[in-house]
């Protein structure tokens, strides 16, 4: 089967599982063929998190604490009600933190994200979004990242430099669709355990290695920490090659490699020892690497300057356009939406070009469509950007 036929079948949902060689070749060739289609999100502020729900639906979380489902076929958005905690006064103080993480469990039956208070964990049943439970009375600051270990256990990492382990048992949602309550009901639950991340500052991102049963935690002070998932204990800590603005972390289980994004570099670490196996310079000094993912042996890099770059791990080079020798394949974010309010007019109006940072991106199950979203890099600017590359 040719790469063209395979990608065409993937888009129609007809593709059988391809050979490994064909998957690798498709991952290498696909970025050069992608074209951008932007979507309107109204006036929400900065998309921080995203996850594919189906071939035509993506769920997003924003800085202004909105949880929305975007239908790509109709360009409509649907607001998902956030789960509220009992401590409304504390929640109002933290609400400006927004939703930084969305995670779907392996069976794709449950979705975890932030609640109305960004320091809480909200769990919904898919595909109906019936509320299952709200995890509260744990973290004292925003939750930056969350990862499912399996269908029941969830780990969260917070700005308060703690990590927590949660359990969502099947009896919490088994009969949820047969309930006939006029108002949605959900349980309030607490964490099984919460622990400090030693030598850390703020837990910014998590990645789970299901082969070694280990959790990697990235902290903003330039360290990566390895945790035993079974015992939920910290094993060791390693300083990173680049210590400024470490905000994103991902893993390739196939390559046994972690990727860490910093101010202007992506560092690759052996997933067993956390020893550095290389790093790349993004050539966008100061804007920072904001999102990372792997597609086979290709690392996809979203930057604060609105770029999507593609780095071949095995070949140790950026992908290049075949028609232009030496020209890296770089996709640029579109115009998006920018609110020209009083702050914009007073401090930013003289500069006309504000690229949209790619704070989040994710591939669909076929690996033929790439969703990218974000907004302006400056904290003083209000705006958003969302697009599908296909």
Radius of gyration based on Cα positions: 20 Å
- The assigned structural class equals mainly beta
**What is the arithmetic mean of pLDDT?**
90
Net shape: globular
- Please estimate the helix content: under 10%
Number of helices: 4
Instruction: Extract low-pLDDT stretches.
Output: none
Explained architecture:
This protein is mainly β. Helix content is 9%, strand content 42%. Strands 1, 28, 29, 30 and 31 form a 5-stranded antiparallel β-sheet that branches. A hairpin with a 4-residue loop joins strand 2 and strand 3. The longest helix has 14 residues. The model has no long low-confidence stretch (mean pLDDT 90).
Topology:
Elements lengths: L2 H9 L8 H14 L2 E3 L8 E6 L4 E6 L4 E5 L4 E4 L8 H7 L7 E3 L5 E5 L6 E5 L4 E6 L7 E6 L4 E6 L3 E6 L19 E3 L3 E4 L6 E7 L4 E6 L3 E6 L4 E7 L8 E5 L4 E5 L3 E6 L5 E6 L7 E7 L2 E6 L3 E6 L4 E2 L11 E3 L4 E2 L3 H7 L7 E8 L6 E7 L6 E7 L1
Parallel strand pairs: 9-13
Antiparallel strand pairs: 1-31, 2-3, 3-4, 4-5, 6-7, 7-8, 8-9, 10-11, 11-12, 12-14, 15-16, 16-17, 17-18, 19-20, 20-21, 21-22, 23-24, 24-25, 25-26, 25-27, 28-31, 29-30, 30-31
Structure, briefly:
The protein is mainly beta. It contains four helices and 31 strands.
What features would you highlight for this structure?
390 residues, mainly beta, 5-stranded antiparallel beta sheet, 9% helix
């Amino acid at each position: 089967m040719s790469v063209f036929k395979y990608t065409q079948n993937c888009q129609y949902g007809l593709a059988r599982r391809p050979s490994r060689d064909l998957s690798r070749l498709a991952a290498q060739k696909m970025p050069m063929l992608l074209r951008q289609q932007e979507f309107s999100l109204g006036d929400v502020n900065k998309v921080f998190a995203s996850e594919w729900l189906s071939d035509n639906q993506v769920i997003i979380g924003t800085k202004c604490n909105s949880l929305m489902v975007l239908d790509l076929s109709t360009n409509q958005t649907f607001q998902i009600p956030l789960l509220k905690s009992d401590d409304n006064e504390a929640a109002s103080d933290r609400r400006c933190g927004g939703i930084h993480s969305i995670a779907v469990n392996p069976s794709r039956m449950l979705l975890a994200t932030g609640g109305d208070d960004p320091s809480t964990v909200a769990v919904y049943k898919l595909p109906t979004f019936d509320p299952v439970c709200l995890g509260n009375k744990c973290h004292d600051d925003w939750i930056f990242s969350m990862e499912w270990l399996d269908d029941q256990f969830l780990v969260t990492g917070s700005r308060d430099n703690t990590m927590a382990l949660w359990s969502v048992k099947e009896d919490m949602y088994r009969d949820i669709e047969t309930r006939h309550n006029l108002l949605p009901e959900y349980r309030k639950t607490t964490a099984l355990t919460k622990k400090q991340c030693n030598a850390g500052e703020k837990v910014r991102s998590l990645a789970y290695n299901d082969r070694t049963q280990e959790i990697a935690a990235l902290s903003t002070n330039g360290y990566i920490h390895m945790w035993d998932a079974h015992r939920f204990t910290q094993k060791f800590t390693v300083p990173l090659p680049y210590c400024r603005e470490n905000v994103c972390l991902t893993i390739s289980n196939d390559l046994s490699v972690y990727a860490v994004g910093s101010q202007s570099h992506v560092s690759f670490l052996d997933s067993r020892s956390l020893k550095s196996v290389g790093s790349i310079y993004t050539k966008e000094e100061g804007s920072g690497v904001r999102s990372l993912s792997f597609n086979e042996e290709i690392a996809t890099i979203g930057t604060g300057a609105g770029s999507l770059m593609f780095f071949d791990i095995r070949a140790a080079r950026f992908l290049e356009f075949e028609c232009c020798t030496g020209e890296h394949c770089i996709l640029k974010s579109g115009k998006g939406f920018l609110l020209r309010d009083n702050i914009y007019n007073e401090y930013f109006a003289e500069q006309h070009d504000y690229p949209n940072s790619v704070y989040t991106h994710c591939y669909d199950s076929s690996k033929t469509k790439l969703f990218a979203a974000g907004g302006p890099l400056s904290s003083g600017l209000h705006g958003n950007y969302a697009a599908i590359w296909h």
